[in-house]
Amino acid sequence: MKQKKITFITIVLLLIIIVSFYFIITVLNAKDNIPLQPNELELSTNTPAGNDSQPVATPSELPHPTVTPDTIIPSVPTTEEVEQLLQSLTIAQKIGQLLIFGIEDKQLTTAHQKLIQEQYIGSIILFKRNINDEQQLTDFILQLKQQNEHPDIPLWVTVDQEGGQVNRLPEKFPAAAALAQLNDPTLTFDSATTMGKKLAQYGFDVDFAPVLDVNSNSKNPVIGDRAFGTTPQEVSQQAIAMLQGLEPYIVTVGKHFPGHGDTSEDSHKTLPTINKTWEELEELELIPFYAAIEQKIDALMIGHLYLPQLDAEYPASLSKEIITHKLREEMGFNGLAISDDMVMAGITKQYNIGDAAVIALQAGVDMLIVGHDVKLQQEVLTAITSAVNNDNLSMQLLDEHVRRVLTVKLNQAS
User: Fold this and answer.
1) Which of 5-41 are b and which e, b meaning 16 or more Cβ less than 10 Å from the residue's Cβ?
2) Residue 22 clears pLDDT 50, i.e. is over it
3) Pairing status of strand 336-339 against strand 251-257
């Protein structure tokens, strides 16, 4: 009887072990077969911050944060100083860091004070209309910077100073084409060094130069002698010489990505179309941009250019495909992406400027130039604020843009 009882208990134990083992195998198989959601897949293939050569999950593709901001892993390189500053800013202050506003007058006004102190605009662009002479310019820039009430984040004063027909300074500098005709990059470097020193002397922080466009279309009404040449090789050589001359003194912004050279229309007046594939652009227009990225250029200006073979819906300056997927992921650019002036007809003929500003930020633009018209500037500011409040522009994406701006500002100030 005792023998039978032992045998019965043994059989029961064996059955329990077999059932348990079957249950464990079933659960493990089920877990392995659960499909990843799209955002989980993107996060699972993300690469460490700072590795620009590999594609990473982009800000607008990531899920809305469900954790506190200080636990979010940013997808752009950062520092403890940048993160502390970022967390100290209000939403209004963050938005202000993304805007570059033009102003009227040649001396400080209460309107300028309001922009900087009450609306927290982080950057100002000066045009020829703002400049008389050396002393006036020096004093004006100093007065503007004195209105900045944030001690750790500089107010940027920016300018379009290329030389030739786009010459804002009291001093005259030669056009790109004139320098290129000398066929000596050393002379271009020397000219750029002199210009960079002058810009810094006045107090400028950012220069929207050099021009990286290849002047490959003789009917182009807007580039012309602003370009260093008609081939990508000569443009690359000369533009890099200018970049190297400028960069010790000022933040440099190459333009107009992905290339404004092969157009017969002016984006100030309309939206030019460039009917080329990405492969065709890589054979010509993109070569100088690749060279500038290799030189670690601080920023690139995105042109108001329609490339239907890349994005049939949006122009380059509003295109996530062109800015995020092509420029950042494929070309490896991790600097600032800055829009061309949003008041240009290439945008305003097609879009409400406030809507366009939000679309541009969603697409990957970090900073927006709104160079003219107080009414349009306020429309942009209101639209971005509403988009953030309504979660049409996520806090995570807003923070990524601000993180890039703060990184370059702090590097430039150091």
Assistant:
1) eeeeeeeeeeeeeeeeeeeeeeeeeeeeeeeeeeeee
2) yes
3) unpaired
Co-location of 224 and 145 in the same domain: yes
Answer yes or no: is 50 within a domain. Answer: no
Rounded average pLDDT over 239-258: 97
268 given a catalytic annotation:
yes
Q: Within a domain: residue 287?
A: yes
Q: Per residue in 148-159, pLDDT tens? A: 999 899 999 999
Q: Which of 139, 190, 266, 268 is catalytic?
A: 268
pLDDT mean across residues, the chain: 86
Cα–Cα distance measured from residue 414 to residue 412, given in angstroms and rounded to the nearest whole number: 6
Instruction: Sort residue 259 into left (φ over 0), alpha (ψ -120 to 50) or beta.
Output: left
pTM (global) more than 0.90? no
Q: What is the CATH number of the domain that holds 158?
A: 3.20.20.300
Note the pLDDT tens digit of each residue in 337-352: 999 999 999 999 999 9
Residue 328 has pLDDT above 70, yes or no: yes
From 205, 340, 341, 366, active-site residue? 340
Same domain, 223 and 84: yes
Query: Quick check: is 340 catalytic?
Result: yes
Residues 14 and 151 in one domain: no
Residues 261 and 396 in one domain: yes
Q: In this structure, is residue 70 part of a structural domain? A: no
Residue 264: pLDDT band with limits 50, 70, 90: confident
The range of the structural domain enclosing residue 26 comes to 2-34
400 and 292 in one domain?
yes
Distances (CA, A) of 72 to 49, 59, 390: 12, 12, 21
When divided into structural domains, the chain yields a total of 2
What percentage of the chain exceeds 70 in pLDDT? 82
- Whether residue 63 lies inside any domain: the answer is no
Ramachandran bin of 271, using left for φ above 0, alpha for ψ from -120 to 50, beta for the remaining angles: beta
157 shares its domain with 215: yes
